[in-house]
Design goal:
Layout: E1 5-7, H1 11-15, H2 18-30, E2 35-36, H3 46-51, H4 54-68, E3 73-76, H5 79-92, H6 97-107, E4 110-112, H7 113-120, E5 129-136, H8 140-145, H9 150-157, E6 160-164, H10 179-183, H11 185-202, E7 206-209, H12 212-224, E8 230-233, H13 234-238
């Protein structure tokens, strides 16, 4: 494609899960998609917005808009970050007409990774191979905030060697919710316990999802409680060959 595709790599990926970013790069490269990574990029401002630090969030959002507004598409392996850009940015600048217009225009070009592959590129088969039995956790930010339901499933269905099995309450929250897990740790722990139990009962080897925050939350709980199995971002599965 001739359009300018820019990668946005979220904080959690940059600091804790670089393998996700590398997997995104591998998949896009395999598909022949040219892309750029602007090293001026920083956080999208989601933690500041969630914490109520609006002026700080505006500063970060202005920087994000300035860095990415020359791109035709902004692609990130995080539904919550893309939701921040698409939903929160326009609302942040409701009283600033110029920045509001720039935020709205940019929001229309921001896409979660699986959404970009399926809805923009029209691709379901990325020529991946991964021998495993897997189930899909439908993260809130991807499913509810962005309305993306079919894209992850369509991509996984085409992975050679992958058997996708049902996960009970697949569309129920994992308990992370950003600040929620900090403010209400006991409730969060109870919710993620149910998610881990459902994964264990599914008979799958791998729990797949499209949201880095959910990944850290579920993987962390499973590690602390010695629950066997892998938790992987969908980009990691699609990058296998």
């Amino acid at each position: 494609m001739k359009e300018k595709v820019a990668l946005f790599i979220p904080c959690l990926v940059d600091q804790f899960l670089p393998e996700i970013g590398l997997s995104v790069v591998k998949v896009l490269s395999r598909l022949g998609v040219s892309f750029t990574y602007d090293q001026r990029q920083t956080c999208c401002g989601q933690p500041l917005i969630n914490g109520g630090y609006i002026e700080g969030a505006k500063k970060v959002a202005r920087h994000f808009i300035t860095v990415f507004e020359a791109s035709d598409y902004i692609v990130a392996p995080s539904g919550s970050c893309i939701h921040t850009v698409k939903d929160h940015y326009p609302r942040l600048f409701e009283d600033e007409p110029d920045w509001h217009a720039r935020a709205v225009e940019l929001s229309e070009r921001a896409f979660e990774f699986t959404q970009f592959l399926v809805s923009v590129l029209g691709i379901r088969d990325v020529h991946a191979r991964f021998e495993a039995k897997a189930c899909l956790h439908e993260a809130c930010a991807v499913l509810r905030s962005l309305g993306i339901k079919d894209a992850p499933k369509a991509l996984l269905a085409e992975v050679d060697g992958l058997e996708l099995v049902p996960l009970n309450d697949a569309d129920v929250c994992c308990g992370f919710g950003g600040e929620f897990s900090v403010d209400f740790p006991m409730i969060s722990e109870s919710i993620v316990k149910d998610k881990a139990e459902n994964f264990k009962n599914s008979g799958a080897d791998v729990l797949v999802l499209a949201e880095p925050g959910c990944l850290l939350n579920i993987r962390g709980y499973m590690s602390r409680n010695n629950i066997p199995g892998q938790v992987k971002h969908i980009a990691e599965i699609l990058a296998q060959d």
